[in-house]
Each structure stands twice: as structure tokens, then as C-alpha cells.
């Protein structure tokens, strides 16, 4: 893997640890990365899961992302 890829992977792992600890912004960022396949394999189901967790904690970006899924 290229250096940029490993950096993206490391960033993702750090964010995922924070997300799994309940941080709303990290959950939103993990959702974005799953949706876009950045630093991790693309997974709309995982994106939706993390957007939902973040939205439940009041994150406006995650709430918007969820709303857009159901348009």
C-alpha cells in the first residue's frame, strides 16, 4: 500500500476507537469514511449505523446525512 493509504487507514482506526467510545463527531466522521470508502472498504450499512449513533447524540451533520438517506 502507498504511504497515503496507510495514513488514511491509521486515521480511520483512531476515529473508529473514538466513535466506539461514543464521541458523536467521530461517529459522524467514521460514517462519512464508510460511505465514501476512504481509509476503509465502502459500506453503506456501516455508514448508516454510525450516522444513526451520531444523530442520536444530536450531531446535526449526521442528522442531515440520515435525512438524505430517506429522501
Helix and strand run:
HHHH
The rounded distance between the terminal residues' Cα atoms is 37 Å
How many H/I helices?
Answer: 4
Number of strands: 0
* Beta-strand content estimate: under 5%
Give a structural overview.
This protein is mainly α and 71 residues long. It is 76% helix and 0% strand. The chain contains 4 helices and no strands. The longest helix is centred in the first third of the chain and has 18 residues. The radius of gyration is 12 Å and the shape is globular. The termini are far apart. The mean pLDDT is 91.
Keywords:
single chain, 71 residues, 4 helices, 76% helix
Topology:
Layout: H1 3-20, H2 24-36, H3 44-56, H4 60-69
Helix pairs in contact: 1-2, 2-3, 3-4
Short description:
The chain is mainly alpha-helical and 71 residues long. It is 76% helix and 0% strand. It contains 4 helices and no strands.
Amino acid at each position: 500500500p502507498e504511504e497515503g493509504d496507510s495514513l488514511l487507514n491509521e486515521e480511520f482506526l483512531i476515529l473508529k476507537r473514538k466513535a466506539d467510545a461514543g464521541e458523536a463527531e467521530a461517529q459522524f466522521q467514521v460514517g462519512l469514511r464508510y460511505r465514501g470508502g476512504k481509509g476503509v472498504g465502502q459500506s453503506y450499512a456501516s455508514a448508516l449505523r454510525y450516522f444513526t449513533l451520531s444523530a442520536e447524540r444530536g450531531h446535526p451533520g449526521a442528522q442531515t446525512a440520515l435525512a438524505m438517506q430517506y429522501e
